[in-house]
Amino acid sequence: MGVSDIGEPLTGELPELPRSTRRVAFVDSGLGLLGYADALHALRPDLGLVLSLDPDNMPYGPRTPDEVQRLILASARATLPFEPDAVVVACNTASVHGLGALRAELEPHVPVIGTVPAIRPAAASGGPVAVWATAATTSSDYLRGLVDAFAADVETHAVAALGLAEAIESGDEQAIEESIAYAASHTPAGVRSLVLGCTHYGLVVDRILAALEEGVTVHDSPVAVARQTLRRIGLEPDATAPHAGVEAVLLSSRPGRLPESWASYPAGRRLLAAPATGRPAGTSH
C-alpha cells in the first residue's frame, strides 16, 4: 500500500468510541487481515473492528525475527486505546515470531489469537497436500515442524508462491495472475488439498482454484480463527446481531482511512460496506 492509498484520515485523532461496543483488533503488515476481519464480522457483526496495518514496514517475510516481533508489538499497542476485547495476529510470520511476546505483554487482560496454516485438517482429509506460502515460510523450520507434527504420514509439498502476497497488496492484477500461474505450475499433479500458508492468499482464492486441477480442496484459517476469537471472549456466533463495523484503521500506528483499494477483493468490499453504526465508511469525524 503506497502513500496514495492512504488519502484523508478516517480519524485525525483517536476517536471517542462508544464504550458499550465490544471490539476486536486485527494486526498484520498489510491486507492479509481483511479475510480474518471479514470472517469475524460474518459471525458476529455487532463487534467493532479495529484494523492495524503496517505499510511503512511491510512485507514482514524478509525481516529478522527480532524485527518482526518489534513491529507487531508496536501495531498491537497502537490498538490498545480502543480497548479491544481481543487482538488477532492475522499474519503467519508475525504469529511465529511475535505471538509469545504479545501474549506475555497483553494476556490475560487482552486475549491474543494467532494464525497457523491449516495443515492438520488438510492432512486429515488425505494427501497429497500442497502448501503455498512465501519463499521464507516454505524454507522455514516453522513449516517443517507443522508438517512433522500434523502430516508426517501424508505426502506434502511446500510451494513458494513467489511475489503473490506483494501482488495482492499492490492490487496488480497481471502480477497476481502471473504469481498464481507460477505456483500452480510448481504444484505436483494429483494434489488433493491446498493449504494457504499466507493470510493474503485467501483474498484471491477463486483465482487460485481456477488455476488448479479440478477436485482440489482449499484449506484456509479465517473462519477457524474467528471461532477461536469468539471462544476466547466468551461469545457464540450470531449472524443476526446488530451491525457495528470498522471503527478505526491504523497505518503504521497512525490514524488512517479505509483505502478504496480494498474494493478489489470481496472481503474488502464487505468491510467497506460495514461502517460502524452512524459513521459512514471513509468519512472524518
From TrEMBL:
Pfam families for the chain: Asp_Glu_race
Signal peptide positions are: none
**Alphabetized SUPFAM superfamilies for the sequence:** Aspartate/glutamate racemase
Q: Which domain of life is it from?
A: Bacteria
List keywords of the entry alphabetically. Isomerase
Say yes or no: keyword Calcium present.
no
Q: Which InterPro entries match?
A: Asp/Glu/hydantoin_racemase, Asp/Glu_race, Asp/Glu_racemase_AS_1, Asp/Glu_racemase_AS_2
UniProt-listed PANTHER family = GLUTAMATE RACEMASE
The protein depicted here goes by the name Aspartate/glutamate racemase family protein
Which species does the entry assign this protein to?
Terrabacter ginsenosidimutans
